[in-house]
Amino acid sequence: MTSAAAPGNEPAPPSESGPPVSGPPMGPESIAGPGAGSAPGAGPAPGGGAAPWRGWAAVCAVSLGIFCLITSELLPVGLLTPVGAALGVSDGTAGLMVTAPGLVAGFCAPLVTVGAGRIDRRLVLCVLIALMVAANLVAALAPNFAVVLAARLLVGVSVGGFWAVAGGLAVRLVPERHVGRATALVFGGVPTASVLGVPAGTLLGELGGWRTAFAAVGALGLVTLTALLLLLPPLPATRHITFPELPALLRENRAVRAGVIVTFLVVTGQFAAYTFVRPILQEVSGVGAEHISTLLLGYGVAGVAGNFLAGARDAYRTLLVVSSSLTVVLALIAVLPGPAVGTALLLAWGLAYGGVSVSVQGWMIKAAPEAPEAASSLMVAMFNFAIAAGALCGGLAVDGISAPAAPLGGAALMLAAAATVWVSAIRRTARTPG
Fold first, then answer.
1. Alpha-carbon gap, residue 310 to 79, rounded angstroms
2. Between the chain's N and C termini, which has fewer beta carbons within 10 Å?
């Protein structure tokens, strides 16, 4: 893989990526893997003509995996009350079904990446999906909340590991010129899970009980596992990542370090505000409670559109636009009254944030073309930790000050993110030869 694999296809200067991390020397062909024509059977080589259908089918299978995992991670959001009532715990305690997997995913992103060693990535993805299937079936049959929570921890392992490994696979599955679009398709599973997966799971829970919802996600996981087995080509590991490489990558690679910081700032700012979007819409915008679910559906649809708009564009420019736009949107939604204004700002919020996942992934691939899995694991870990940090900070702001304080705090973090992207882009431009 080369640095042109990231959205925008602009080569990163050698000094921007920093010195390579420890490990055996890797030439461009051995790094790129089959997507660049290095190892047979793992994907099409870049070249003329349309991308082979099998490569795109494999990308769709990976995207389905992301969709299934994010649906599984967020499913309890709509089932907290029935699960708590059935198993005799409070709503606050039931909320651990969301918090715990997020924290576990943050820890497991680098752990799985290192632990996978030289195992074929196709096998790694299949095992992680199978683990998610088992976890949801256990939750569906759980006799008490302790068993449900243990199953949810396994979901966290699956989410963190799958996301870290899958994020950099597009370059191995489709020709180089299509990598941006393929990466957008992979990460399209994230907002689509919010738009379709979680509401569908909630509806199933209302119709057939919460156990039915967990069982249905497990069944979807079996479909996903079958798709991965049938459509993914062999994906032999291109290198063995060790634990010392991860802090070394942060220490020695300025662009990776900046990407992790931007991820923390943007995602913490997002969830400081979005976790409390309902009280913001009701108290500031004056939106009636009966319209909240419809507006959130619109937010999700806008997020899907934003994901694909960002997919084929330069990650630096996109994140600068995204973080700057979110700074303005979050500041305005905190202070401007009126349902029409609130609705417009919410849709703009969804459109802008929809480009975050694919753009930070593109940033990390471009920043560390010699170690894409290691860079992705650092980003995924920070992404999940930032979700928890954002929800905590937003909660403190709402309880200690008021509901508008949450988006205002989020806007401040987005402004810091925009400044970080701006400085990183200037450094990259200054060091680009010619």
1. 32
2. C
With 60 as the cut, is the pLDDT of residue 92 above it? yes
The two structure tokens encoding residue 253: 């690679």
The letter for the amino acid at 404 is P
> Which tokens go with 126?
């299949």
| Residue 38 CB burial class (10 angstroms; 0-12, 13-18, ≥19) | buried
Length of the chain: 434
On the 0-12 / 13-18 / 19+ scale of CB atoms within 10 A, 258 is buried
Q: What pLDDT digit, counting tens, does each position of 135-155 carry?
A: 999 999 999 999 999 999 999
63 token code pair: 């995207």
